[in-house]
Amino acid sequence: MPAMTTVLRRRINLALKTTAFGLVALAVGLLAWVGTSQYFGRSPVGGGEGTANVGGPFTAIDHTGRAVSEKDFLGRYMLVFFGYTSCPDVCPGELQIIAAALDLLGAKAVKVRPVFFTIDPARDTPEVLAKYVANFHATLVGLTGTDAQMAAVAKAYYVYFSRSEDIAPPGDYLMDHSSLLFLMDGEGRYVRHFNYGTPPEEIATALEKIIQ
């Protein structure tokens, strides 16, 4: 029982720390955008919606082993989440929410592509990702690549991640990471983000209003 208590405490602390860090990182990005938007005569965004300097070009390998870039996703909205397949609870929980939201969206779901960027490319090979994403939704795309590629795309989304300093057997470590869900439009531009744990009904309602 003491061991379980320690594990639970570690996961709670990890979730609180990474969620807070992710919100701070995104806020910094949005504040930076507010400054540039005012310079160019545009109105700053409020809340979790609007146009901001989030996202951008990337190169990666999808879960089928195919080389892809942001251009392969143009023309559809993207729901973007960062995580890793060995994540014990946050990642599978959020991916289940995404899947449920898409199911609730009905016919409009064909206009949305859910994308899962790994922040643990050392373990998350295309083969590993293929088995993982199949557990959630038929349209979910898993993306991996080199450490540099994944770090670059995470930086573009103001996503924090790092390997946990907790002692663990080789290959059995945890990753700290922020857990926001991003909605990008058909041209790869930021539309809004959802906090971790936002109910699928709320996400589906928001998508219904946004998607034409």
From TrEMBL:
CDD domains: SCO. The lineage of its organism: unclassified sequences, metagenomes, ecological metagenomes. It comes from hydrothermal vent metagenome. Gene3D superfamilies: Glutaredoxin. InterPro entries: SCO1/SenC (IPR003782), Thioredoxin-like_sf (IPR036249). The chain crosses the membrane at residues 12-34. Keywords: Membrane, Transmembrane, Transmembrane helix. SUPFAM superfamilies: Thioredoxin-like (SSF52833). This is Cytochrome oxidase biogenesis protein Sco1/SenC/PrrC, thiol-disulfide reductase involved in Cu(I) insertion into CoxII Cu(A) center. Pfam families: SCO1-SenC. Belongs to the SCO1/2 family.
